[in-house]
Write a structure and sequence with these properties.
Layout: E1 3-9, H1 17-28, E2 32-38, H2 44-53, E3 56-61, H3 66-72, E4 75-76, H4 80-83, E5 88-92, E6 95-99, H5 102-113, E7 122-126, H6 130-141, E8 146-150, H7 154-167, E9 175-178, E10 188-193, E11 211-219, H8 227-234, E12 238-240, H9 243-258, H10 265-273
Parallel strand pairs: 1-2, 1-3, 4-6, 7-8, 7-10, 8-9, 10-11, 11-12
Antiparallel strand pairs: 3-5, 5-6
Helix pairs in contact: 1-9, 5-6, 5-9
The chain binds NADP nicotinamide-adenine-dinucleotide phosphate.
NADP nicotinamide-adenine-dinucleotide phosphate binds at residues 63-64, 102, 105, 127-132, 151-153, 156, 194-197, 199, 202, 204, 220-222, 242, 245-246, 249.
Length: 282
């Protein structure tokens, strides 16, 4: 009998997670099935409990349920503790464990796949939703010089910075919240778009001068052209979509569930060949 896993979200039909986990299972010889579950906006908890009652072992959680998943978890571990958002649930009998692997996924993609060190860099994080909460602590652990959080709704960026100030006081040199209009004159080495603007063909209002020489523009959105990466290309800087992050966070979830760490590079290469993401450009 295979062990059952799935990704749950709304919408969820676009998710590449089933292909990624099927690839990991083939590579590692783990006997699992992995499906998509569409949950109604008000029906997340019921859908999780029904999946567990049907023998499910664990779930990946995507938009818009990461905060709800965190609240549902009886035990939160690792980066989920500070993030207040969970993207991975693991069922241990009656107990639901919540984890957040998004930040590990981002940092591994930056440092291991793209070979960009975060240490000492000026980082701009755009967006203050679930994804930004998930990546903040792992990013801070890489010891960037500064992290500026910019968001359309400034209060949410201020709340995010306040949240991590309380939890991560020692790591907090140089973290601040700013509106996009206040970025004129500032320059960054790593610019991470953690907004969902690209999904609707939009981008945060950035000044052209915001890219330092040699900067990396990273969009968490994958499998489509985004205005942010097009804008960055026109400024002549290196760009990457979020496909590598997606595969890396999936690998960490797989490890949590199965205790086996799959190879990620072949899966990233295969998905890019199949058109599941645009290539990082030098
Ligand atoms: P979320 O909680 O819904 O937050 C969305 C964020 O985007 C908010 O900060 C929102 O600003 C901002 N935003 C939306 N439309 C905008 C626009 N037109 N201009 C400027 N800002 C805009 O979503 P999330 O969970 O944080 O996810 C964000 C994105 O990251 C999604 O596209 C998701 O698919 C992607 N993601 C990718 C990975 C990966 O592995 N590659 C992992 C996690 C997430 P306001 O606060 O002002 O509304």
């Amino acid at each position: 009998m295979s062990d059952k896993y799935a990704v749950i979200g709304n919408p969820v039909e676009h998710s590449l997670s089933p292909e990624i986990h099927a690839g990991f299972a083939r590579e590692t010889g783990e006997n699992i099935t992995y499906d998509r579950i569409f949950a109604p906006r008000e029906g997340f908890c019921d859908a999780v409990l029904a999946f567990r009652a049907a023998g499910g072992k664990g779930l990946n959680v995507t938009l818009p349920f990461k905060h709800e998943a965190w609240r549902l978890a009886a035990v939160r571990s690792g980066f989920a503790l500070a993030a207040g958002a969970a993207n991975t649930l693991s069922f241990q009998g009656e107990r639901i464990e919540g984890h957040n692997t998004d930040g590990i996924g981002l940092v591994r993609d930056l440092t291991s796949n793209l070979r960009i060190a975060v240490r000492g860099k000026r980082v701009l994080l755009m967006g203050a939703g679930g994804a930004s909460y998930g990546v903040m602590e792992p990013l801070l652990r890489e010891q960037p010089e500064t992290v500026v959080v910019a968001n359309r709704t400034l209060e949410k960026a201020i709340a995010l910075v306040g949240h991590f100030e309380k939890l991560q006081a020692r790591a907090l040199r140089g973290i601040s919240a700013r509106p996009y209009e206040a970025l004129a004159g500032a320059q960054f080495d790593i610019l991470i778009n953690a907004t969902s603007a690209g999904l609707e063909g939009a981008m945060p209002p950035l000044p052209e001068s915001v890219f330092a020489p040699g900067a990396l523009a990273y969009d968490m959105v994958y499998a489509r052209r985004t205005p942010f990466l097009d804008f960055a290309r026109r400024q002549g800087v290196r760009v990457s979509d979020g496909l590598g992050m997606l595969v890396e966070q999936a690998a960490e979830s797989f490890f949590i569930w199965r205790g086996v760490r799959p190879e990620t590079k072949p899966v990233i290469a295969r998905l890019r060949q199949e058109g599941g993401g645009r290539r990082a450009e030098g």
